[in-house]
Write a structure and sequence with these properties.
Blueprint (H helix, E strand, L loop, with lengths): L2 E6 L5 H8 L4 E7 L3 H10 L4 E3 L8 H7 L3 E4 L21 H9 L8 E7 L6 H12 L3 E7 L12 E7 L48 H6 L6 E2 L23 E2 L4 H15 L5 H9 L4 E2 L2 H7 L14 H9 L4 H12 L1
Parallel strand pairs: 1-2, 1-4, 2-3, 4-5, 8-9
Antiparallel strand pairs: 5-7, 6-7, 9-10
Helix pairs in contact: 1-11, 4-5, 7-8
Length: 341
């Protein structure tokens, strides 16, 4: 079968990159998203793909049939299922687009394959229940996963929910959500090379001072931040608020060894009990040479190839927001192989 793909909630094109990385033969027929900045990035990297700046609710079964597509790849908004989004679930109007897809899916007879990605936590939502009911009503078989890139040698923790659905059955059980790839699927064994932080770094002369931590954050927030070294095997999940908020939005980098970092923090703690040592403490913290990961480095941690780029007019703030809303290309590419096997 030649796969003809409709990419929904397409963002910056992560699913497109994942489909290409899967080596499955097929075409991305169209991509759809309402985020104009994301669409600009998508069109910049894939100028020959039709990028539709449309609301998903404008889709009808007839429009989908006219596209002559047989696969949907999608990553609906995760905010209704996150702590920051107050977990409003289907009461959040950002859930409306997925509910619309659930409504029309039983009428889309030409769609044989679907991959859906969302945040961990979606699996316990009412939106999840509605989605599974829609798959069942439309005659799909499905398998669910919660996976993180760290399981595949990528030093970034990003646990995500995935659902594979197709009209033919799978050859591995799926009574419960799977926490690793099945051993008895048709995808051949894959050897994963472990990537370390130093493998994804840009040269120092290309970074500049703009990525250094400001003194205010160094003195007040550094204790709350996740600091990683060149040999580290894990970073925190990067969110769209990276560099805007200090806590829980992603890791920061130092070129020092872990032993040096620990020694400096020990000295700073000792100084905190002494009066008039704030200036010395700040100088010690500066010696850590802490900086944010650049957008290029974050995109590498999310397995985007170096051919991926942003249009020149995209600001750093926009880059981090767009990457924070995207997917890990490598993990999804493996799941597409399973879906199509």
């Amino acid at each position: 079968m030649e796969f003809r793909v409709l990419e929904l909630f397409s963002g910056i094109g992560g699913m497109h990159y994942a489909f290409n990385a899967s080596s499955i033969t097929g075409t991305i027929v169209a991509a759809m998203d309402i985020n104009t900045h994301a669409n600009a990035v998508y069109a910049h990297n894939y100028p020959n793909t039709q990028v539709c700046n449309n609301n998903i609710q404008s889709l009808t079964p007839r429009k989908i049939d006219q596209m002559n597509v047989n696969m949907i790849l999608m990553s609906p908004p995760c905010q209704p299922h996150t702590r920051v989004g107050n977990r409003l679930d289907i009461a959040d109007n950002r859930s409306d687009a997925l509910q619309h897809i659930c409504d029309i899916l039983p009428q889309c007879q030409g769609i044989h394959y679907i991959l859906m990605e969302n945040v961990k936590g979606f699996e316990v939502s009412e939106a999840h229940n509605q989605y599974i009911e829609a798959l069942q009503a439309a005659g799909y078989q499905w398998r669910e996963f919660i996976l993180s890139p760290t399981q595949f040698g990528i030093p970034n923790s990003r646990h995500r929910y995935y659902c594979l659905a197709r009209k033919k059955d799978f050859n591995f059980p799926g009574e419960q959500i799977l926490l690793e790839l099945p051993q008895d699927c048709d995808v051949p064994p894959i050897l994963f090379n472990e990537i370390k932080i130093h493998d994804i770094l840009e040269p120092d002369d290309m970074i500049g001072e703009n990525y250094s931590l400001p003194e205010k954050i160094l003195s007040k927030r550094v204790w709350l931040m996740d600091i990683v070294t060149p040999e580290a095997k894990k970073t925190m999940c990067f969110t769209k608020a990276y560099t805007h908020y200090s806590e829980g939005t992603g890791s920061i980098y130092t070129s020092l060894a872990k032993e040096e970092v620990d020694l400096i923090f020990t000295k700073v703690k000792e100084m905190e009990v002494s009066e008039g040592s704030q200036d010395l403490s700040l100088e010690l913290l500066k010696s850590l040479k802490l900086r944010y990961f650049t957008p290029r480095e974050v995109s590498r941690l999310m397995s985007f190839p170096d051919t991926f780029s942003f249009p020149p007019e995209t600001t750093n703030r926009q880059k981090y927001r767009l990457l924070g809303n995207s997917i890990n290309v490598r993990v999804v590419s493996l799941l597409i192989k399973i879906l199509c096997s």
